[in-house]
TrEMBL record, chain A:
This is Globin domain-containing protein. PANTHER family: HEMOGLOBIN FAMILY MEMBER, HEMOGLOBIN SUBUNIT EPSILON. GO terms for molecular function: haptoglobin binding; heme binding; metal ion binding; organic acid binding; oxygen binding; oxygen carrier activity; peroxidase activity. Keywords: Heme, Iron, Metal-binding, Oxygen transport, Transport. GO terms for cellular component: blood microparticle; haptoglobin-hemoglobin complex; hemoglobin complex.
Automatic annotation (TrEMBL), chain B:
Keywords: Acetylation, Heme, Iron, Metal-binding, Oxygen transport, Transport. One of its GO terms (molecular function) is organic acid binding. This is Globin domain-containing protein. Coiled coil: none annotated.
């Protein structure tokens, strides 16, 4: 089981409670699709992803970015059992979506950078450490049911 | 994943906007790397004070960003341009190259914090490619 300090718990809950999911989610996913273009392989039916402007303006990207953050929200609300909370999601990503789990880390890095831009100076080293630890647990749990 | 002309232009443009803050960027990036990735402390065991913003950390952040500035000026041939630095890292410092990725990530985070408007996804991808190229050039002489 993952051990969370009080600081880590408070930090994660604080960040997500203040977050605008419909802004951060789309921004993080769009950034991922631009910075790591091979991730576009999973979104063949999303239409126009030809350039950064198209990706940013794509409504399916926006909608999916928000969906992803709501998925992360489940982990925020169950920080002491993210592993089991994500069992079904992990099976989905493996069996149905066939997503290479290495991609989860790429998206996590983009989310970190978007949140850093939002929080500015508040995104101290300690806050970054807590945020990245949380994302690492989420990423690991999402990859757990792959076989 | 080599640097296109578009990447080089993007890196030079972004650098022109952020270079005056390079000392601050280096200090913050190195300070938070030590906090976020404690295993990196193993390279700085000889410093008396590893706390964020301490004199050693500040000075070293400046040194690192000096290397980045050099890399920007040698962007057309990073391998040749950074050969001396590669020798230093390979034979003297012997930093495991995995750490180049870690520090690169911290640099990106700091730039995102300090220059949110300039650090668009387009600028991000070019800078990420550039830092990967720098890391590769630094590893050139390792084996």
């Amino acid at each position: 089981m993952v051990e969370w300090t009080d600081f880590e718990r408070d930090t994660i809950k604080d960040i997500f409670s203040k977050m605008e999911y419909e802004v951060v989610g789309p921004a993080a996913l769009a950034r991922c699709l631009v910075v790591y273009p091979w991730t576009q392989r999973y979104f063949g039916n999303f239409g126009n992803l030809y350039n950064a402007a198209a990706i940013k303006g794509n409504p399916m990207v926006s909608k999916h970015g928000t969906t992803i953050l709501h998925g992360l929200d489940r982990a925020v609300k169950n920080m002491d059992d993210i592993k089991n909370t994500y069992t079904e999601l992990s099976v989905l990503h493996s069996e149905k979506l066939h997503v290479d789990p290495d991609n989860f880390k790429l998206l996590a890095d983009c989310l970190t950078i978007v949140v850093a831009a939002q929080l500015g100076k508040e995104f101290t080293g300690e806050v970054q450490a807590a945020f990245q630890k949380f994302l690492a647990v989420a990423v690991s749990s999402l990859g757990r049911q792959y076989h | 994943m080599s640097l296109s002309d578009k990447d080089k232009a993007a890196v030079k443009l972004l650098w022109s906007k952020i270079s005056k803050s390079s000392d601050a960027i280096g200090n913050d990036a190195l300070s938070r790397m030590i906090v976020v990735y404690p295993q990196t402390k193993t390279y700085f065991a000889h410093w008396p004070d590893l706390s964020p913003g301490s004199p050693h950390v500040k000075a070293h952040g400046k040194t690192v960003m000096g290397g980045i500035a050099l890399a920007v000026s040698k962007i057309d041939d990073l391998r040749a341009g950074l050969l001396d630095l590669s020798e230093q890292h390979a034979y003297k410092l012997r930093v495991d190259p995995a750490n180049f990725k870690i520090l690169s990530h911290c640099i990106l985070v700091v730039i995102s914090m300090m220059f949110p408007k300039e650090f668009t996804p387009e600028a991000h991808v070019s800078l990420d490619k550039f830092l990967s190229g720098v890391s590769l050039a630094l590893s050139e002489r390792y084996r």
